[in-house]
Write a structure and sequence with these properties.
single chain, about 100 residues, alpha+beta, three-stranded antiparallel sheet, 3 strands
Amino acid sequence: MPVTKELPLIPAERALKVIGGRWKVFVLYYLFEGPKRLSELRRLIPGVSQKVLVQSLREMEEHGVVDREIFAEVPPRVVYTATKLGMSLRPIVKALC
């Protein structure tokens, strides 16, 4: 999936734009372990509302850090995974955590 959002040119500013925010680092941290559903992420990250979590996931998806896969089931199942770009942020997130 191509990165659709315009990012700053300075690398440090670009990294902060992608993982900045209160919950994005936590989301990435748990996605490094493997694919997760929205409900799993909500259980793992206490204190985050569903609205904010979905908003953070969508922003990270726009930046190409997270991939969302929708399965054609009833009810629909959505799984989030860290992309190759997202996995490249692992040392940064590990240092922050």
